[in-house]
Each structure stands twice: as structure tokens, then as C-alpha cells.
Description:
The structure holds two protein chains of two kinds.
Chain A: H1 3-8, E1 13-24, E2 27-38, E3 42-47, H2 53-60, E4 68-73, E5 76-77, H3 83-87, E6 90-93, H4 105-111, H5 125-137, H6 153-166, E7 171-175, H7 183-198, E8 203-207, H8 211-217, E9 220-225, E10 228-233, H9 235-238, H10 241-248, E11 252-257, E12 260-266
Parallel strand pairs in A: 3-8, 3-9, 6-7, 7-8
Antiparallel strand pairs in A: 1-2, 1-4, 4-5, 9-10, 11-12
Helix pairs in contact in A: 4-6, 5-6
Chain B: H1 2-20, H2 26-48, E1 50-51, E2 54-55, H3 62-87, H4 99-113, H5 125-145, E3 146-147, E4 150-151, H6 153-177, H7 183-190, H8 200-219, H9 221-227, H10 231-236, H11 241-263, H12 269-280, H13 285-310, H14 321-345
Antiparallel strand pairs in B: 1-2, 3-4
Helix pairs in contact in B: 2-3, 2-13, 3-8, 3-11, 3-12, 3-13, 4-5, 4-6, 4-11, 5-6, 5-11, 8-11, 8-13, 12-13
Amino acid sequence: MSEQDEILKPPSVLAACDVGFAYHTDMPVLSGVSLSVSSGEFVCLLGANGSGKTTLLKCLMGRLRPSIGAVRLDGEDVRKFSARALARRIAYVPQEPRVAFAMSALEIVLTGRLAHSGALGLAGQKDLDIAKAAMKMTQTLEFHDRPLGELSGGEAQRVMIARAIAQQPDICLLDEPTSQLDIACQMLIYRMMQRLAHDWNMAVICVSHDVNLAARFSDRLILMRRGSVVVAGQPREVITETVIKETYGLDVELIPVDNEPPIVRAK
Amino acid sequence: MDKKVENKTLDNMKAKQERSLGALTSTRLFRLGGILLAVTIVTAVVCSLFGPMGFSWGMAYRLQRLAAAAMVGSALAAGGMGLQAILRNPLAEPYLLGISSGAGVGVLAGMSLLGSVPAWLAWSPIPLLAFIGALATCTAVYLIAQRRGRLDAYSLILSGVIVNVFNGALMLVINLYIKPYQIIEFSRWMMGEVSENVNRGTLIVCCLCIMTGWLVLLLRSADFNALALGDDVARSVGVSVARIRLETFLCVSLMAGAAVALAGPVGFIGLIVPHICRMLMRADFRVLVIASGFIGAIFLMIVETLCYSLAQYAQVAVIPVGIVTALCGGPFFLVLLRRRFQVVEA
Lengths: 267, 346
């Protein structure tokens, strides 16, 4: 990252300040969650089912309004942004790539350009070039004219990631993007997220269920339990038997690996 | 020399194709709109030449009826497409969701009031009450089906069915109170007929409503594409999901209200035409909203002309278009439903 680049695109910070959230007033899903993620960082959110990871992600993307606290993007409340303005800063990839009608991969990627284009959102040459670059990066260009339903799970998810990249966001949020995919696809997508953070200088936040992949690829892990953060930090420091036991209620052993975080294996 | 130039232009075209990857550009959209407009005009002219006597010249008097048919067709088809987009369900349609029957209650109320308004306001009660009826039904269906602002497509269709039954009962109640000489007019209207003696003012007001609604739907059609990816993704690419749903419901109420005021409850156009469009064209809502409007107009003009010309062979005075579309549309809907179940199982 040269100095000149930093002048052109200042680093952004997405921060949750003491966020609490409840769907029903007597059952809080999140309580007192604070975290901060800045450009160039790849962060994974880990935790058992129902620990509030997805709810936290929805608060971070401004979809849900926290009942306490606030989520700030560069110091400004994300709920104060218009949907369009926020879409230029934050992109989101859902768990399952789904589309109700038979739209082609390219058409789906081009919806990522909506917040940048005028009425009717018709694609200009610049939008097409960006969409093409995003599809090249995710290796989806070759099936640009095929409907999403005809693609394999891994291909479809890569199309959804290409759509997020086409938004040219500062921050990319992903909700268990690899939960339906085989191990090769999982590796591919984790590598891709790492590249987005390190080479493209995005802040990438990914909800994950795979402790080992998350620890191997991400810069920082945030482990959650019952709506609050258990511990956050670099994978090598965070992954211990006690932390995993506390997060998942599971007895594990750690298998050390050279130059990488240890592998977690259930007992 | 000529061949060289030809090759060069061919290469240029290829390069252009390569660069755009077949994406929808403004040129393509305008070309499509132009072609469809031309086909619609040709169909209107050809249809105006046919009547009960077969082919004949000088049937310009048919143009008003055909204009009404075209408007009704495009309102119901484009409105159906809009509903399908916001509900993410290709089975949604103004008639099935009860919007048309709500407008119908308004129209019947308007017809029974007709005698009591001054002549210069005679155009107003029917479309106005149709719109109010459609909007009230739409609001009711939406409020019943939604939970915390989220809509489940199946509970929506189910509440539409129930509201339909309720509206049917309301129409019968109005039927009880009208004067005997109006009963024939009422029952013919309820079959869905493009009538000759539509008030000119009513026709113009309804056309304006339909055009406005269609235009707004077209301006929102890019957002419809994003909506197909789910509410969360749509929101994340900058679509105000709740607002666009509300706007679309308003537009469809306006369009369906106007269509019902002109022709009564003509069902299943909003289902058949969008389906034809999806078979013929790419699944981009900017294309589909434009195409369904024009193809809906063409479709209903042809059906209307057939009904008008063939009535004598069936030995009846008129064949209302609503009967024909319902007779064709019912089985069509069932086939679509069956196929959808098969897709879900597989």
C-alpha cells in the first residue's frame, strides 16, 4: 500500500459500541458487544448456533437497529445513512445464494452497481468493466450468461461474492458463506476473503462455523457466547482448550502446526 | 474493398458484444420498447378491421373499445409483474390477491351512485371508488399477511383468497339494494366486459392512472432485480425494501382499480402474460415490466376482437372477455402450480 493510495482511499473503521439487541424485550440476543474492524483486516466471528453472530452481522450492516448502543462507520451511526449511501460502503453476502427468478450470473453481479448508477440502473461501460473485474477475481466470468440456479453451490456463492465486490465497498460482511460447500470451495473462498482484506484493503467480517479455517486465514477471531464476546484477538493467542470449551461447551485437544495456529480436534 | 469494410464493422460489432457480455444497455432497452410499441400499434389497427361481420374497412368506432382493452391488458399484466417482483413469487396476480375484487366493490358502489351525481362529475365515482376499494383491499391483505413488516408469500396469497370471498359477499349485498333495471348492467359488468358505452372522461382518467402506475413500476424495475436476491441483499445494495413494497402496492392498486373500472374483474392476465414474457425474454425486470405492459395490451386486444367477432357463432349477444381469460387462466394457473411443486420436490 503506497502513501498515494492511502490519500485516495482513507481507511474506514466499522465499530460496534456496547451494542445490545432483543427481538422480544425479555430475551436479549446481544448484550454489551463492542468491537472494531478497520480496512485491510480479515475478522472471523465464531460461536455456537444461537449465540447472536448473525444478529450482530445484521446490526453491523444497519438492517437491525440495536436496542442499546450503536454501530458506527467512521464515527457516524449506520442507521443514519440512507440505504443507497450505505450500499456504497458496506456489502453483504448471505449464507445461501438464492434468487427467485432465472437471472444470469452477470445480471446478478450488476445489481451490485445499483447504488452507483442512475435511474433504471442501466449498466454503463464503467459498471461493466467493474463487474467484469469482480467476476475475473472470483473466477466466475466463464459462466456469466448462465442462470444462478444452474450453477453449483460453490460457483453460485462466488457469484454472490463478485456482486459484493462490484459494490466497491470499504467493508464486506459475509454470513457463513461456506456452510454448504465442499472443502476445496471452502479453501477457495477463505483465500478470496483474505485477498480482499490484504490486497484490496477492505475490512472483511465473516461469520464462520469452521474454527480451523477461520483461525488459519483470518487476522483476528471474535468468539461469542450467548450474545456477548468471550474473547477477541489473534488466532494463535485466542485458540486454547478453555476458550473453545467456554464458547462451544466442547472438550477439545489442540494439535500444533508449524507457523500456523493449532488445529482444533473434538475429543 | 466493400468486404473489408463489412469485416471491419462485423469485428466492431463482435468487439462491442464482447465488451458488454450481452448485458442490458440503454440501446437494447430502447430498441425493445420501440419494437413492442410498433407491434402493439399494428395489432390495434388489424384488430380494428375485424367485427361481427368479418373483415371490413371503416371500423374506427372500434378504436375506443380496443384502447380500453389495451389499457386493461397492460395494467393487469404490468401490475402482476410488479406484484411478482415484490413478493418474489411468479403466482402473484392482482385478481388472486383480491385487489381486483376490492376494486369491483368500489365500482359497483360507484355504479349505484351514478344517478345521484351531477352530469359533469359522471366520470368520477367509478374510477375513484375502484381505486379506494383496491387500496383498502390491498392494505387489508398486507396487514393480515405481514408480521413485523415481513411478508410471507403463502400467507399473502391465502389472505388474498379470503378477502376475495369477503368482497364477493359485499358485491352481492350491493346487488340487493340496486334498482331492478341496473341488474343486467351489473351482472354483465361482473363477467368482465370491455363495454362500448364507457364514459369518455372515465376512459381518459383510467388511462392516466395506468400510465402513471406503469411508469413508476418501470422506474423501480432495477430495484426489483435486487429484490429477487432477498430482502437483506436488496437492502445491502441500496434498495429501501419497505418503501418499494409500499410504492408498488399503491401503483398496482391504482392500475388494477382503473382496469376494473374499465372492464370489470378480468382475471389471470397478470399471470399468463408475465409467464409468456419470462419464456420469451431475459429475467431482467426492466425488460419484463416494459414487455409485460405491451404484450398484455396486445393479448387483450386479440382476445377482445375474437370475443367480439365470434359472439354470433356462439349464438350469444356478447362474449365477455373476463369469462374467456378465466376459462383459459384457471387451468394455466394449475399447471404452473403443479410444476412449481415438482421443482420444490426435486
